[in-house]
Protein 1
Amino acid sequence: MAELEGKVALVTGGATGIGLAAATLFAAEGARVFITGRRQAELDAAAARIGATAIRGDVSDLADLDAIAARIAEAAGRLDVLFANAGGADTLATIAELRPESFDEVFGTNVRGAAFTVQKTLPLMPDGASIVVTGSTSASRGNPGFGTYSASKAALRQYARVWAAELAPRRIRVNVLVPGPTDTPGLRGIAGDPAGVPALLAQMAASTPLNRVADPAEIAQAALFLASDRSSFITGSELFADGGEVQVFPAA
């Protein structure tokens, strides 16, 4: 039997990158999948490719989150798997360069967005549901320029611990998936100029003992494990799918 046969899953940020790969795999494993994103054209294309239901929405907007939860409630009546994956940082800044607007944007999407995605969809979750939150190896490192992004992902790690305790009486498991460098549009965007992408990918590959970046499909497999009953005795944890970046090269 497929890993998620008969389950209902929501993947936020599901139109590209890791979210798209996870949504594709969840659907292949039998789930009825809903995906969200801010860009309608990308979202519709992804939904058509997967066979998922697209719901346009910004996770930092509470009205959008209410609409997403209402749409899932009407269409499916429940939510067995939440992959709170939406997030990122369009710009990086040192403490000297940090602007309040960029701080609010990063924390608004990465922390506020994830927290209220969980809150708004929680009434749809049956006992035994699974929540997976996308973390980052940046939360374990001190890379210059990544302070706000790193802090936002560290906040999610602590939220997951607390949520795991709060939701344990309902057997709802909460775990953090920590990808290493993964070949996604978001990662490539750090280069700024497309001509700089090969050098960026080579630099990122060198940060891992496996000496390569991940394919999004590899991270999706880890998401599937945490979403499925195979991880039934795992909650409040971090699963590092990082090619050894943090565990083997902690000071790099």
Note: The chain has eight helices and seven strands.
Protein 2
Amino acid sequence: MKNIARTVLVGVVALVMGLTLTSCTDDSSQDKENKAKQENYDHLVAQQPAGRMEYSPTREAINQWIKTWGKRGKLSYVYIQNAKGEYGYFIMKGLPVPRCKMLTPTERVESSSDGIAVLPQPGMDGTYSSGSTCNAYYGFDATTGAYMEFTIGTNQSFFLFDKPMTMPEYASAKQLGPTSVKDVDKQR
């Protein structure tokens, strides 16, 4: 009886080890495709290596953005164009912020014997986001500090400037928030 149990146990261990070893050497079509993609990429990089730039206009633009918006109290002038082509404006402290931006991670990665799972995290308000809030922006009025929120979508656009615009389409824009360009000019 012990020999039969021992034989069955050895068979089960061999089967588990065999399955484990075969899972480590995956020759699936997806694995073959991934290898082919990597080989093709390696070949192209060898044939056409990335060039070197002497100067980066992109880095200059990012640094200029940092200089412009990295100042406490900086005002932003948000001009909104509706479907009729009419303009209105808000003046905000700082930049308008997309509602989908968070100060904490929105996901966490957990690994288990079943693999890796990416799980959503609640926001600062204790609720979960569907990610559909990226077309809604908020900020605070330049003089009153009033909370303001606006949504951009079909047939509506917004244009952001760090100074009031004088071009005709912007000059005739309707004041949409508590603060006007004249209010800001008086404070300077």
Note: The CA atoms of residues 54 and 140 lie 41 Å apart.
Protein 3
Amino acid sequence: MNAPLPVQMLKQHLIDPEICIRCNTCEETCPVDAITHDSNNYVVNPDICNGCMACVPPCPTGSIDNWRMVLRSEAYSVQDQLGWEELPQEKSLPQAADAGVALDAPDIAAAAVSASFAVPGASIPPWSAAHPYVNLYTHKTPMTATVVGNYRVTGVDTESDIHHIVLDFGELPFPVLEGQSIGILPPGTDAQGRPHHARQYSLASPRDGERAGYNNLSLTVKRVTEDHGGVAAHGVCSNYLCDLAKNDTVQVIGPFGHTFLMPNHPRANLIMICTGTGSAPMRAMTERYRRRIDTGENGRLMLFFGARTERELPYFGPLMKLPRDFIDINLALSREAGQPKRYVQDLIRERAAPVLDLLSDRNTCIYVCGLKGMEVGVLDALRDVTMQSGQDWSILHDVLRREGRLHFETY
């Protein structure tokens, strides 16, 4: 069972183009730059990949977790993979006894443990999370949803044009959980004449629908008119979604996500840290808790929410109407007139006492969603808060990851 593989054999790492949503997470995560892409596919270079598994846990769809046993001399090249529309079938291989000199294969289990340190959060869900359905609908077999609502949730006088979009699936099944995401297929083709790939959006509604008991869900979508560097850019899918009217139809794939999930056990606490449209999964979890507020099942909720101003903070009005004894809300506004510039990590340090109280409870899970650049600041703030109490953050950080209690969804 644990015999070494022959030297001519390779357990080649491949990405399934039918499931991949081209979110770039794998390429950003790979520590040896083995993953690359063109306008068609994301692929793994067999000459560089060392099987470290660092890219596998962060992938939202599971498309990255595919392998083929091949003769090393016949490994699929980068160019082969870039031209694929689907994964190839397994090849017929020679028996190990005829394959020549043996070579120890990477210990994938050990590599996965080592790779867990390449990402800041957990690679497993909370122990009590419900089992998610994933990849029920693909690029080849998308689901059609109907738009039943499209509302701007930021001030009309601001540059931040964020919409709350509600999609209905009628009588067709589309089961989701808080923390999952879906893919939207925008119509039309790219510059090479190929159909647009899906864009991923986190759910902003709980598992029982945007409207309780209905087979619908909601998304939080920001109209993209420039990139993160401020250069003008037209977001193909975001503009398409923000311009949708009631009764329009949308092609949907997914759902995705098997780790960034809400705990289900009674009195589970949530620390939620987000910026901008990263508020979507936090809204889903908060709404799930709100709907069962009278059951006695809820733990404590603490929210750190960052935006430039109150007018650019999505869902500001509804958020302010939630009972103060239901959720501890902390707003970090970086460009509010007459107020000092503050970010979510600043507020985490300012609220060190209640944060520490929650961190000391094994029922607490932490969720971080927003731009990738916030990861370091949040981790530094949690480290500082922990060290204030005389604890070792490296030990606590490892515990939170191993127990599925610290999750990042950044982009």
Note: DSSP finds ten helices and 17 strands in the chain.
Protein 4
Amino acid sequence: MYPSSYIYTLKAHGMKIKSLVVMTVAAGLLSGCFEDRRNTEQVCADHPLLKCEELNMDDGQCRIPRTNLIWHRLDVIKKPTDLSKIKEYKLTQAYKKCLEVAAQIQPIEQAELKRRRFNALVNSGANLKRLENELKKYKTPRSLYFLWSQIGDLDSRRRFLQLEGTKELETPYLQYALATFYIDRDPEKTVKFLNHSLELTHSSKNLNLQVIESLASLYNLMKEKEKSYIWAKVSKEFGAAVADDKQLFLLYGFDEKRKDQLDVIAEQVIDAINDGEFHSTLIPKNLN
């Protein structure tokens, strides 16, 4: 769920780089491109199971997503897991999207190149279906959630929801996944799963910012503006594009005393998340 637009504002960030650095980096990238191409051709020759012949090899179009896909397929061959298959699916999607554009480009006097692009597009669609069928065999929480949320498989959704309350879903990511199902059905239950996702996050380095943003927005929709304000302040601390303090003060309309009280709670929550020790009881149930 995305935060309310009047709370969160997008900001563009720029970066200045000296021309000498740009030239050096560009030269390195150019050298790397040729090296990667030689390595990719060799890995295709050494591993027929990669089926590189199904891709538009020797075509300048879609080189980067094609190369990424080939190298990841090699990882999958070495260690096939549900997570590696999910990543392969996403990389195949990115490659297919590029091919859809490339297939519309009319090469000058190169009918064979156009045919290869079309064939690669067809093959990428077939590979997506293959990966979908392979993922269904895993029946792990991650694969079930992916098949439901990304492909719309209702049987996978049913199987995933049947795991609610089990140890298999006791991870920050999967608690957030549960929350996404209940967001339009049961706000209180959604809050419970979002909070538990944070409770299971033992390092701020692994923090899912969407959890905090969702709490701010959800409490706002539930008209619990004190809690919404607290989570807006917390999300700002961890990098969300939130209105500045003055705008938040005007938006929520608290007096200075009440604002200071809520700021203290927000700081306690921030410290707890940084220490990997957050618990939902840090925020009193009745703040209104």
Note: Residues 19-46 form the longest helix (28 residues).
